[in-house]
Structures are given as C-alpha cells and as structure tokens.
Design goal:
This protein has 327 residues and is an alpha/beta fold. The protein has 8 helices and 10 strands. The structure holds zinc ion.
Length: 327
C-alpha cells in the first residue's frame, strides 16, 4: 500500500515536471504583435486635411438634414473606388419629440475574406445642439464638428487610400458611425446611436479589436491613454502607444488620464475590444479662456485643425497597421 503511494507520488512529480518542461519548450505566442517593418507607406496629411475641410464645409451633419445626406454621399463617393467592399447600413432610431432619425453606418472593408481582422472607426454625424455655448440662445444651433466627427473621418478616408494602394495580409474594416452626438448632455441614452446599433446587430463579426478616433485633429492635441480603453483592452492601448513612441509622436502621451464614454463604450459592452484615441481634455469645454474651449460650441471649425497633428497621428496609424502581424 505504502509502496503504491510512493509510486503515485513519483508519477505525479514526473507528470508535473514534464508538463512544466513542455510549457518551457513551447512559449505561448501572442495572437498578434508589432514586428518592425521597413516599408511603411507615407500618410498624405494634406489629403486628410483636405477631406476634413471639404467635409466640414458641407455644413452641420445633423441627422435628417440635407447636409447630413450630402455628407453621406461624400463618404460613399470617396470610399466606393477604394474599398474592396462597401456596406451601407440604413436604420431608424427614435429621437426626441417623436422624431424618427434616419441614420446610416458605412463600412469600407479591405481583404473582406480574411478571418484575422481589426477595425478603425469614427463618427461622421455632427451635433444638433451647441449646448456648451455660454449663451443659452445658441443651444439649439447645430455644431459644424470639424474636429468632433470631421477629423476622424478625414484620417480614415486617407487611410482608405493607403490601404487600397498597399494591401495588408489581414483584414481591416473602416467603420463610419452615425448618430454619435445626438443626445442632450443629461441623457447618455441618445448618444452613440450608430455604434450601439452596430453592437446590437454584429452577428458573427468578431474582429481581434478596434481603434476609435474622436476629436483627433486639434492643433495642440494631447492623446493620453484613455482610462476606459485601458480597462477594456490594455494590451491594445500599449501596442498603439508603442507605435507612437516608435514614430516619435509629439501628441501621444504615455500616461493614463480621463475616462470617456464614446462609441467604444457600447462596442466593448458587446464583447468586442475597442480603444479610443481621443483628445479628452477638449471634452466639457471647461477651459474658461483659450482657443481649445470649443467642444459642442459653434467654434468647432476648421481653424482649430492642425495639419501637423493629422500628420503625426497618420504616421502612428500607418506604422501600427503595417507592423501588425497575426500569429
Ligand atoms: Zn461631441
């Protein structure tokens, strides 16, 4: 009996030893990583800026307006010849006072058959109310949203051009969400309408992760590591900020600061990892003085957009996209 116990103990020791050995021999590879690539395509920040400028010049992109329809047409016209496939998803959501909002999410896919995929996204609508204005009479005026919506769109449209010219060996979807900025300040339930609809109808779509761009174009933009993104997907935050370090970005700051609810919130809640690159200091327009206090005001126009910021961000994203390898 005793002998048997010794034998079992010896066996267990042997088994656990051999298991440990096996793990040492085959270290678990991450499912994706950044591998230095010497051929990173150029990011044409003039083209991205030009898109932001033209897109903003259409006027406020408020759901159900003529300008909103023009902005939708602009996106489709630019994306159609560039994307491998383009999905235009029209849907209706309830607004305030029985208004039915006609909304559209647009997805430009590259390498649509690839199983390993990521997505980049931004919202394309603009806010119906300039309710951060000090003058209450202005609260029902619509916002132009050159930075709040427009900047992310311009960067994604230039990325579409880059991805069309130089293929990646995994799949990328560029997703343009509608209805992000419809809600009144006290009512979070009417924000993120497009991304919420996307999350509710995602079906079998299961990308490795996503990157949201919001408020990315300001001349003096500061991109801290947004705290809810860290909660949801710290490894992706670290990878993106490592790409920023590799490209000597002046705008990415490797420090956690500010937690923001944004389009990435419903997406993370639906189980798809998504981080937010956002100039979060703008949110709240709380600086009493200074050019940067324009969030949700009539001053969110092209004058605040800096081509150097767009160039800096574009370099980070191109470095990231073209160094990313799935294992
Ligand atoms: Zn906004």
């Amino acid at each position: 009996m005793k002998k048997n116990i010794y034998l079992i103990t010896a066996l267990l020791i042997f088994i656990s030893f051999s298991c440990t050995k096996k793990e040492e021999e085959q270290p678990v590879k991450p499912s994706f990583e950044l591998i230095k690539n010497d051929v990173i395509p150029a990011f044409d920040s003039d083209n991205a800026f030009d898109h932001i400028s033209k897109f903003s010049a259409l006027g406020p992109r408020v759901p159900n307006s003529k300008e909103h329809q023009m902005a939708k047409n602009y996106l489709i016209t630019v994306l159609k010849p560039l994307a491998d496939s383009l999905a235009i998803t029209d849907f209706i959501q309830n607004g305030y006072e029985d208004e039915k909002l006609n909304l559209t999410n647009i997805t430009a896919s590259f390498n649509p058959g690839a199983k390993n995929r990521i997505f980049l996204c931004a919202h394309w609508d603009s806010r119906p109310w300039a309710d951060a204005e000090k003058d209450k009479a202005l609260h029902t005026s619509p916002v132009l949203g050159a930075n709040d919506g427009g900047s992310g769109v311009g960067v994604l449209l230039e990325l579409a051009k880059v991805l069309h010219a130089k293929k990646v060996d995994y799949g990328i979807d560029l997703i343009f969400f509608d209805g992000e900025d419809y809600g009144r300040h006290s009512d979070l339930s009417k924000f993120f309408l497009g991304s919420t609809y996307f999350a509710q109808t995602k079906g079998s779509y299961s990308p490795a992760f996503g990157i949201l761009l919001d408020l990315v174009g300001d001349k003096e933009a500061k991109f801290y590591k947004e705290e809810s993104s860290i909660q949801a997907a710290e490894n992706i935050v670290d990878l993106v900020w490592s790409a920023a370090a590799a490209t000597s970005s002046k705008h990415f700051i490797s420090e956690p600061k500010y937690a923001i609810s944004d389009d990435h919130t419903p997406i993370n809640q639906a189980g798809i990892k998504c981080i937010d690159i956002i100039d979060a200091e703008l949110v709240g327009a709380s600086e009493n003085i200074g050019r940067r206090a324009y969030w949700h005001t009539l001053r969110d126009d092209i004058d605040n957009i800096g081509i150097d910021t767009i160039d800096d961000l574009g370099k980070v994203l191109n470095y990231f996209i073209y160094s990313l390898k799935f294992n």
